[in-house]
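Reopening this ticket.

The earlier resolution said the output was attached, but the attachment link was broken on my side. Pasting everything inline this time so it's all in one place.
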Amino acid sequence: MVIVRAYNGLGNQMFQYALGRHLALLNGTELKIDTGAFADDPLREYELHRFKVRGSIASAAEVAHFREMEAADPQHYLRLMQKSRLFDPAILQARGEIYLHGFWQTERYFTQIRELLLDEFQLRTPPAEGAMKMAGRIEASNAVAVHVRRSDYVTNPKTTLHHGVLPLEYYQEAMRRMAGMVPDPVFFIFSDDPQWARENITPPGPAVCIEGNDASNGHEDLRLMRTCKHFIIANSSFSWWGAWLSGNPGKRVIAPLRWFAKPEIDTRDIVPPQWIRI
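Inline output:
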C-alpha cells in the first residue's frame, strides 16, 4: 500500500496525488489518501474528490497501523519525507509499504504517467452553462491564461514572507513577451482578487477577467484555465497545473524566475525546462 498525505491547497494536493499514483503503480499496489491534516486546517479542505482520481481515503486505523509498523519494521514500512524542493530519484525507487509526506512539486515524479493524469484530473461534474459559454470563448481564440495570485500571499505575513508577491512588472513583461510570440492573443485573467486584477493588469490586447468563482470552487477556474492555449503563471501550484494540463502541443508558458521569496530555496526542478522563466 502507498499512503500519501494530502494537505494545503488544491494545486499542492494534485502534486501529492500525482506522485502517490505513480509510486503505487510502480509498486503494483493500491493508493490511499490520508486527509487527516484538514481536520486541523480551517482554511483548507480536501478537494481531490472533485476529480476522477483513483485511490480511497485512508482510515485513521490504517494510518495508525502504519505508524506502529514503521517503528517495528522500518525496512518494509517506509515513511518518505521531502528533503528539499529538488527531485529525488530515490523516491521513485522505493518499494514496500510507503507513506509519503511532502509537496513533491516537480513533474519529474510523474511525467511517465502524464496521459493517465490528464484523464484523472478531469472534473467529475459537467460545467455550468456560464462556464460552458466562457470555455467556448476561450476555445475560439488564441487564449492566454494570466494567473494573478494574491489572497494569503498579500494578507498573511507568514505566507508573504515565504512566497512573496509578484510585482506588476513581471506581468507587464510577460504579457509583452507573449504578445511577441503568439499571434492575436486574447488574455484571460484569472485571480482570487478579480477587482484588483481588473484595475491593475493591463494586457497589450483584448482581455477578459474571469469572475464568479472563489476559494470554494476554484476547480472551475482550473477547468477553464487548462482550456487556454498559452500561459502566464504565478508562483503558484494552481496555475502550474493549469499550464501543465493544457493539451496544446505548441503552448508557450512564462513562469517567474523566483518561485519563493527566499532565494536560498533551490527551485530549478519546479518549472519544466521548456517553460520560459523571467
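Reporter confirms the inline version is readable. The two ends are 41 Å apart (CA to CA). The CA atoms of residues 22 and 113 lie 7 Å apart.
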